[in-house]
Automatic annotation (TrEMBL):
Species of the source: Chlorobium luteolum (strain DSM 273 / BCRC 81028 / 2530)
MF terms (GO), sorted A to Z: iron-sulfur cluster binding
Record keywords, A-Z: Viral envelope protein, Virion
2Fe-2S ferredoxin-type domain sequence ranges: 1-93
Protein name: Chlorosome envelope protein X
Highest taxon of source: Bacteria
Length: 198
């Protein structure tokens, strides 16, 4: 099945979380907490295929306001692909980037809305996180490992971008036996553990 994240197509399977598909494809979705439903940086707006995803559970309902849920927003770390088909999402960070590039005057209103909606959900979010902690669902060492992995992934992505590759592709010098340039067409599915963009 295909999933389109920020207009870039990725392969996915039933049972995959949106955040895992995004991370493996180097899509522009935040994941500072490593996908542990803590940091709220993985907001995405589902533009197509919402019915193919798991329904929002209690953690997502606690962390997203009713308005954000009604607008099709989900947390990529909690939304799981349940049915085959096409899913198209736009991450919050990509939405802000596009707004800054095309209509920056909308940024203050967007920021105010997102800030207000986070404030509305804050009491439920704190209560839910406290309950998760008491029930032993949060592993502090595991979360730190996941956060370190997220930072390392961001550094790897930044390095690839600095070296001139596109997101989701390895730098040209790593494929085609060292040949460089836009004409690289080795066709390898993966190299250095990085999936090539479709």
């Amino acid at each position: 099945m295909k999933i389109i994240i920020n207009d870039s197509q990725h392969e996915a399977a039933q049972g995959d979380r949106l955040i895992d598909v995004a991370r493996s494809g180097h899509a522009h979705i935040g994941y500072f907490c490593g996908g542990n439903a803590i940091c709220q940086t993985c907001y995405v707006k589902v533009l197509e295929g919402a019915e193919l995803l798991s329904p929002p559970g209690e953690p997502e309902k606690a962390m997203l306001s009713e308005l954000l849920l009604a607008e099709g927003n989900r947390m990529a770390c909690l939304a799981t692909i349940e049915k085959p088909g096409t899913i198209r999402v736009l991450s919050a960070v990509e939405e802000v980037k596009r707004m800054a590039e095309t209509d920056p005057l909308q940024l203050p209103a967007y920021s105010a809305k997102m800030g207000w909606e986070a404030l509305v959900a804050f009491p439920a979010t704190i209560a839910m996180q406290f309950e998760r902690t008491l029930e032993g669902h949060l592993d502090p060492l595991g979360i730190l490992r996941d956060m370190a992995g997220a930072v390392i992934g961001a550094i790897e992505l930044a390095s690839a971008l600095i070296l001139g590759s596109k997101a989701g592709e390895e730098p040209a010098s790593d494929c085609c036996q060292g040949q460089t340039g836009e004409g690289c067409s080795c066709g390898s599915a993966t190299a250095n553990g990085v999936r090539r963009a479709a």
